[in-house]
Amino acid sequence: MSIAVIVVDDEPIARHAIVRLLRDDPDIELVGECGDGVSAVQAIRNQSPDLVFLDIQMPAINGMDVVATIGAARMPATVFVTAFEQYAVRAFEANAVDYLVKPFSRDRFAQTLQRAKTRLSAADTGTRGAESIQQVLDALRRREGYLERVPVRVDEKITFVDVDEIVWIKASRNTVEIHLADRVHELRETMTALGERLDPRRFARVHRSVIINVRRVQAIQPWFNGYHVVTMDTGQKLRMSRYQHETFLRLVSMKE
Question: Ranges for the HTH LytTR-type domain (predicted)?
Answer without folding.
Answer: 150-254
